[in-house]
Amino acid sequence: MNPTQHASLDTRQHPAPPLRRLARVLVLLCLAALPLQALGEIRVSDDTGRELVLAQPAQRVVSLSPHLTEILFHIGAGDRLVGTVSFSDHPEAAAELPVVGSAGQLDLERILSLRPDLVLAWQSGNPPRQVARLEALGIPVYRNEPRRLEDLARTLERLSLVTDRQAAGRDQAIALRAGVEALQTRYAERPPVRLFYQIWDQPLMTINDAHLIGEVIDLCGGVNVFGSETALAPRVSREAVLAANPEVIVAGGSGEDNHGWLEDWRRWQGLTAVQRENLFFIPPSLIQRHTPRILEGAELLCQHLDEARARRSEVSP
Amino acid sequence: MSRLPLSLALLAAAGLLAMGVSLALGSVPLSAAELWAVFTGDGEPLHRTLVMELRLPRTLAAFATGALLAVAGALMQVLLRNPLADPYVLGISGGAAVGALLSMLAGLATALVSGAAFAGALLSTLLVFGLAHGTGSWSPVRLLLTGVVVAAGWGALISFILAVSPGAELPGMLYWLMGDLSHARNPVMGWGVLVLVLLIAWPLGRHLNVLARGSLQAAALGVSVRPLEWTVYLLAALLTATAVTLAGTVGFVGLIVPHMLRLVLGNDQRIILPAAALAGGILLTLADTLARTVIAPQQLPVGVITAMLGVPVFLYLLHRSR
């Protein structure tokens, strides 16, 4: 699994006649004078286990997901991007890039016309047939599918490798892992808080424990009331939420707005979460997008769960 | 008969023009000269890839799909003697959709999705055939009712699959249901079936003309009605199944193109069938070109455009004909 970069030089050690040996040394010296990246072949396996071989670091990258665009800017490789998909709104520079369709429906012609030497695909978000088509047309494709926080750290490392930003990628990965560990040490062992995480309103949708947000909940010492559902993002009924009676309700929203999703729960005054005012909003871009900003979202969630713990003593007799 | 060669020649010329436009337009517009250079073999490599790998298969698939649907619609309208009949009225698209969506849900490869769609279409055809045929007393109304009810059953299954599918699969499924040519790669089967069916159906044109006036008249004039009707049904089913396999359920072409042609050319099936193939192909080729370019880089499903183009044209023709 470890990504490695190695030069594909012929370094066999045969005894050779002196003249030929001299010639070989000269050739080697000339080659060494070339920029190293011209020689370095990059091998990296993507999240689906496929190995990607690039002759040199990617210079023209098309990202097929807002989160991959964001990660590339994060590791300082935003200048390598030549195209992205709609809703790539962070950082601001991403909005300047040419758009090649939406993540769910790609404009293959526009992608080809940008002459990319690497396409970053989102395994569960892009149409697999269109991605396969790009690959068949000879464009190297890296498929990304982060399911755990560790996957995210590894994505930072791997994408820094293919864009020749190893130092930045390593630092960011270390920072992410350290941030996760700090939250874990601080919050994971605190008294568990049963919560409902609402990612969509109509239909009412939540996430299970296998989801990235599920791991964040775990980190903060929370217990997802629908954690053992089989679907990654199950649709649930309001009745099921009322029956589970969570102590906390956390909701994302559409865009950066909650659209009154949380207010709607106040109709059910019997809910513990409503009685204790434990209705919290976390901007979806901070936690539902698979980028290092998830640390900010995780921090928010942990704080909210702590508020909920504090309110226990207020109400208990 | 003198209208036949002239109108068909005009339509064929328009068809070639439509294909040319479809090959030239896209996210990277090509001039006529650049397009010519691609075909003579000395165009830019990027242009060659765009035209030969992406646009040509898609244009040919679009034309074939439109032609298949329009001919299927023309045959269905004769068979059911109902102006509202379209290729999907007997539930073929529903069966195909259930097959396709189930295979997408199972995460199967492209070829298998197409195969499942075709299998679903054939299953639905046989189901309707068997149920309508069952007790022996047969009429277009009985066939139509059976088809409509079977289609409703498929519709419920489609809703069920959509409801239980994970969010990530939904956009692909919805595009398939709305009719989408972005995955069409190999139009050979579509063209093969189209030519085959036209070769079988065209010589039947005179009999079809009689059948369109009613089965009693046809029988009185010496047409063996039952075998003819089943032949027409199976041909239309084959056409529809092939079209759905290529592009999902593209609406409207099969309903509107035969009617348009009847309003303009009269109701002689010997003209209508080949003319429907050409006009359907033209409509869908142009509609798909628009779907690719009108709000590019966002891509629209072609079914949206066929209706937007077809409705005003049809209403105009209908208004003028009174």
From TrEMBL, chain A:
Gene3D superfamilies associated with the record: Nitrogenase molybdenum iron protein domain
Keyword Signal listed: yes
Keyword list, A-Z: Signal
Residues of the Fe/B12 periplasmic-binding domain: 60-309
Highest taxon, organism lineage: Bacteria
CDD domains referenced in this protein's UniProt entry, alphabetically: BtuF
GO biological process, one term: cellular response to iron ion
Pfam families: Peripla_BP_2
Family matches, as InterPro entries: ABC_Transporter_SBP, ABC_transptr_periplasmic_BD, Vit_B12_bind_prot
Name of the protein: Putative vitamin B12 transport protein
Protein source organism: Thioalkalivibrio sulfidiphilus (strain HL-EbGR7)
From TrEMBL, chain B:
Keyword list, A-Z: Cell membrane, Membrane, Transmembrane, Transmembrane helix, Transport
Similarity annotation: Belongs to the binding-protein-dependent transport system permease family. FecCD subfamily.
Major place of residence: membrane
GO molecular function, one term: transmembrane transporter activity
Transmembrane domains' residue ranges: 56-76, 88-106, 112-131, 143-168, 188-205, 234-258, 270-287, 299-318
InterPro entries: ABC_BtuC-like, ABC_transptr_permease_BtuC
Pfam families hit by this protein: FecCD (PF01032)
One GO CC term on file: plasma membrane
Protein name (Swiss-Prot/TrEMBL): Transport system permease protein
Membrane topology term: Multi-pass membrane protein
Natural source organism: Thioalkalivibrio sulfidiphilus (strain HL-EbGR7)
Subcellular location: Cell membrane
